[in-house]
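TL;DR need structure tokens for one chain.
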Amino acid sequence: MPMKIFLCACMLLFSIQIPAQKSQQKKVSLIFDSDMGPDYDDVGAIALMHAFADSGQVKILATIASTKYKGVAAVLNIFNTYFKRPDIPIAVPKGNASELKDKEHWTDSILSKYPHKVKSNDEVPDAVALYRKILSAQPDKSITIVTIGFLTNLSNLYKSQADKYSPLDGKSLIRKKVKQLVCMAGRFPAGREFNVEIDAVASQTVFNNWETPVILSGFEIGVKIKTGLPLVNDHSIHNSPVKEVFRVSMTVNADDKEGRCSWDETAVLVAIKGYSPWYSLLEGKMEVAADGSNTWNEKGKGQFRLVESRPYTDVQSLLNHIMMHQPTGKK
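>> reply
TL;DR here they are.
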């Protein structure tokens, strides 16, 4: 083999590959990382994930909070319990992290009404410890992480050191075990977005250094997609914390009378089903400033942002349909 061809082959072998364009064929092993509180599209996202789990398309390895307001572990457990998976591991960041909570008080509403065996954040482990435990136990290059909240946990994971779960540091553990990272993050081609802005330092760490493929669902993707109204209007669905959250929150938000913007749901959809046929990918790299604003470097490599391939109403109809799924608890 001529040296030039050999070198090119080596570069391709070790470069980050563009994610496959077709929908996922195998069951996805997923870690779900969410702020689960400041906004309620996280609730649509966790409902979507459990619906896909009921149809055998995803194995949920953990539901992890990126905020540590009082009760967030219990809130995650409510949804896992409702969907008949009460034993899914939960974790909360125990160090410096946001404590932002919902302004509509839907968390208080469901905490008082729906069953949950986890009562306190003190009952669950630290987020990084659970990440390291799960990553170390899974096959290489097998895990998809979907983050629909702040990048706090992933930054801390990246900077973590060897422990009882793995002799690898965080950077090496991520490289060894993670297949891809799917994020609801950023506003493209430039702007400010809540998840990135809240912990800008963590966002810089992740998007400057992450070494697996990263797919970004930007603010502009989900802002047009309104979900929740069909669920709220379906009188056959009773005793659902998902419906309860959308009912309570849409009532107090005048702008949401047709449904809530679906930023987080799009990230979960892509993490489990793949981006095609709804989106194509544009390669580049998100660059985050100290104030949390972001730009898109078209010359960057290894990160991909979603670009619409079909009308957003196609995704809207699909998400609204799946979010009305009632739990079966199938493995």
